[in-house]
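Re: your question from the hallway

Yes, I did run it. Sequences:
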Amino acid sequence: MSKQFDFTVVDKIIEQNGHNPRAIISILQEIQEHYHYIPREVFPRIAEKLGVSEAKAYSVATFYENFSLEPKGKYVIKVCDGTACHVRNSIPILERLRSELGLSASKKTTDDLNFTVETVSCLGACGLAPVITVNDVVHPAMTPDKASELIKTLREELELANT
Amino acid sequence: MQILKTRAELDSYREAAMSALEAQKRKLLVCAGTGCVAGGSLKIYERLSELMKEKGLPYSVELQLEAHDETVGLKRCGCHGFCEMGPLVRVEPQGWLYTKVKIEDCEEIIDKTIIGGEFVERLAYRKNGQIYPRQEDVPFYKKQTRVVLEHCGHIDAESITEYIAVGGYSALEKALFDMTGDEIVAEIKASGLRGRGGAGFPAGIKWETVRKLQADQKYILCNGDEGDPGAFMDRSIMEGDPHRVIEGMLIAGVATGATEGYIYVRAEYPMAVNRLKNAINQAKEIGLLGKNILGSGFDFEIHINRGAGAFVCGEETALISSIEGERGFPRVRPPLTVERGLFGKPTVPNNVETYANVAQIINRGAAWFSSYGSPNNTGTKAFALTGNIENTGLIEVPMGTTLREIIYDIGGGCRGGAEFKAVQIGGPSGGCLTKEHLDLPLDFDSLKNVGAIIGSGGLVVMDEHTCMVEVARFFMNFTQNESCGKCVPCREGTKRMLEILERIVAGKGEESDIDTLSELADMIISTALCGLGKTAPNPVRSTLQYFRDEYVAHVNGVCPTGRCKSLIKITINPELCRGCSKCSRVCPVGAISGKIKEPFVIDQSKCIKCEACVNSCPFHAIKEG
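Structure:
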């Protein structure tokens, strides 16, 4: 697999960060921004180019919550479960989304790679609680029923895109 | 943009900017804070711009030095604070506030207000039948004192010219040319400014220590990793008045001899990162960052680091590890950060709000600053008011304001008139305050006495329907997830505490669990390595202190608020039930049975408490409790 992996993007990102091992977090962030996750193939490359061990690169990537080593869905839905959303009942929304999509706390992405559902600790939009985001667009004052509606709309969008 | 090479050049630039701003009599200030943007405020901004173009009105989106008085200023500004009523648009010179503005309202705003100079009454804030046209008269704002947030919502958040026009960078000027480093440190010390990030350590003492140390490099570190759920003060400052943070850091650099600064911002705050980047670029272009600033010989640079989603990085030693490209692990102190901080060099670690106070202290003096609050707790504090409260938003009050004033006068009481039960202050590291604390002055010292902390300033209001045991579980779940795993007490201890709490809310708790919880809490507090671990048990401790009866009730099989699903029982009232069978048809697990036209019953062993039946019953015969 690694033979086919094209390192152009990764190399460019490392280059722009001056091959600086201190910039490893920014490098990983930029790689993730490009691929929407961090492909495992990149670790040996990062290690080699930055002069750090592969274990070190991997340890940083797995320590921080934002890095994902698994591909994510086309629609990444984040349910805010910060305190303000929590006390305004965000959990029933999360449960509804998961049951609509057949996901769970351990299975976050649908097999067809269309949807990812995850929680986030606070989006800071507490005035609009409870909120969810779909690919970073905020949907305010959600309810479980609105969540079901939203999934329906997104599925229709997908179908339209496929036809 | 011109490069300012001397103090005189900055002064004349300011004069030009001031008269341009004064000439701009009519202004529409659209809130572009995260909350209002989520509500669509940027689209409103675009629509207003389109309409002015269509109607041939002269307007400017950026302050131009050669503006003339016919121009209408259309600005995207920082958080106005009244997020509940957003999107917000402020109208100047009248000081009117339009609330919950929609795209469809834009035309009326332009026609009536901008062209006609009239007030659009239907967009006003109203309460108890009264209409409040002016922002300053709205009860939410009336009791506030805005020092740190003074520019948020009043100036264009993306324009350095406008910041300079309202007196920005004049404190830097003073620090560079009229004061010695010792005098700056003395002023900050005399002001009594304490760190706004949580622990409340006097900022002046940190600065003094770093100033005295000899080193080839020193750093100014700005902690913008505001991770407490339900807190967004620092985000609003970074988004709404980024230059003020930069100016504070610059002054800290002048005072301590540091020439490089780092701002560490949470990954969840993309807008704050962009506004800061934009502000840094502007400051560089105009010559207020870089080499030989204003010809003073002082050099200063600022870098931005984005977090990657680790709450523990709000702890300063963990934050430093993260900037250095490591996992965000905290380390044992001493050595203190001021002595051996970033890259092993002396470092001033303060948070965003602390730096945002600096320029005002230098400009107006320590005595002015300490006229707010009480002797050991000077100045003002920004709070994020959220949860079950009528007026959610960002507020700022003098230190020592009581909880009652905040919740009832500013916050408008609990949502839907529910009864106030408690407020969680200081996020997952803080504690709860109850009705008995309503008249407690909110400041560092009085909160410490009752087992809570100001923390960064998140205030989450909870009403009578909130289950305190579930809240404690929620916070423990949060800190458990965020425990970095370096030290055993936090890694293992919080896990055990969480397991016990989960057991209790699931109705499987035992009497002895409550004592085990207290014991574990004491152990973790006294042995954990860093601030995260040492404070993680606080929510459990304080809910145990004030709501022990709720824990006991759970252990005895009852959740007093009916929030804990495992503990509720759904029953059909046989007197109200008409036997229509609607409930048995919606029940997903077939737990309801009965004969038509006779009362139905729920088989409790099958019931999953989904409440589908409760909502379906046309006779309101099904109750949970």
